[in-house]
Amino acid sequence: MAVLSWCSTVLSRSTLKIIFNGKRYLRDSRVTIAPYLLNRTKPPEDILNNLTSEDAARLDLIRAEHNMFIASGKAVPPSLSAGDYLELLCCPSVSARNRYYLFRFKVFQRREAKRLEQLSKATTKPTTELTQKNQILRMIRSHPIRAHQDDWVVAELRTADESAQTLVFDCSHENEMRLVDQKNLAKQLAMAFSRNREMRPFPFHFMFTSLSPGTNQYHFFEQAFGVHESMSKYKSLDDCPFTVKSEHFTKVVSGRRVVYLSPNAPRAFDSGEFDHDAVYVVGGIVDKAIRRPVTHAWARRS
After folding, report:
1. pLDDT tens digits for 30-71?
2. Which one of 218, 221, 259, 283 has the fewest CB atoms closer than 10 angstroms to its CB?
3. What pTM does this model have?
4. How far apart are CA 10 and CA 24, in angstroms?
5. 217 is a domain residue
6. Given the DSSP bridges, would you call strands 23-26 and 166-170 parallel, antiparallel or unpaired?
C-alpha cells in the first residue's frame, strides 16, 4: 500500500480503491455527468465554485488522484488548470480520465520541447549575416498587392448569392455529439474556411445554420475563429466574412433546390453534376462516436 500525505490507495484483485478523508472511492465506477458540468459558456472557475456536494467530493478525489500519479511517476501533466479539472469531472469512467491525463501530458511535452527549442535559438548566434536582396522592390510591390488580394477575397466571401456559391453547414446536430466532437467540428470548419480563402477563381460563401448564441457549439466556434483574441479584428461571429443563422437550413434556403451531401450516400458526388443554382448542405457533425447515419437521413428527407 502506497501512502501519501493526504490519500492512500488499496490494490485488490479487480478494483483500485482510493481512501480519501476516511471515505472509500472506487476508481473504476462510472458516474453520471450532471448537465451543468457540460456548460462551456461559463468560465470553468464559476462552475467549480458552485459544485454539488457529490461533484465536490469527486473533484477532491481527482486532485488526490492527480497528486498520487505525480508521486508514482505516471505520465500526467505536472499541473492542471480549472478547465482541465472540469474536463476530468466530465469523464464518466477512470479509463476516460486516464486518456485525458495522457492527452494533457503529451500537450505539455510538446510545449516544453518548443520552449526549449526557442530558448536554444535565442542563445545561438547566427553564423551568416542576415541580408535581403531587392528590399526596396519588396517594400513597394509585395504589401499593396497582398492587401488588394485580401480585400478582393473578403469581398467574394461576403457576397452570398451574387458571385460566390453558397455552401451551407448544418450545425443542428449538437445534441448528437460529445463536447470533444463539438470542439473538433469548430476547428475543422475553421480550417476549411482558411482553405476556402485560397480557392481561385471564386471561393465559396460559408453559411452556418442552427448556430445560436449561448450554446456550447457557438462558444466553440468563437474560440476556433479567435473572435475574442486581443489581436483579432473580428469581435463576434457576425463580423466574420461568413453568414451565421440561428434558424434551420430548411427555413433559410426554402424555395431553392437543396442538395444534402452525406458520407453515407450510396454513390459519390461527380464533379460534372455540380449545379451553380443549387444550395449544397454539409452536415456539421463529427460522428466519431456515432454509428447512426444521421446526415443520410436528412439527405433522404431533402
Report:
1. 788 999 999 999 999 999 999 999 999 999 999 999 999 999
2. 259
3. 0.68
4. 10
5. yes
6. unpaired
